[in-house]
Design a protein that fits this description.
The protein is of the alpha+beta class and 135 residues long. The protein is 34% helix and 9% strand.
Amino acid sequence: LGPMKLEPKPPKASVSRKRRRSLKVEKVKPEELEDSVSKEKTETEKTIAKMFDVLKINKKVCLENLVLNRISFAQTVENLFALSFLVKDGRVVITVDDNGSHHVSPRNAPAASLITSGKVVYSHFIFRFDFNDWK
């Protein structure tokens, strides 16, 4: 490999160059796509609309009859998911009678001013439902 010299080398001088600005400045404007926002409803939105239509026709529905699909556990979970959106928005109310049965009823959603003022308070609940319960 050869002899090693232990003398320090002077640092190289750095040269900074100024970037030239191009004379022709182009403004980049991407083309806009028409109908970029899809107006088609998702499956969950369709399920929510169907469920609320059922509740408008039948003013008081047993929770099991509304949510439970005896053939498909996945569809039962989808129905429960859609119901959770209706409850969160204040569009339905779930009540428990003396026998312990849960009933779902439609109601008008509260006005935005009542929500912001704090006069309307949302309450949350936990609904445990698994495959064994479905069976």
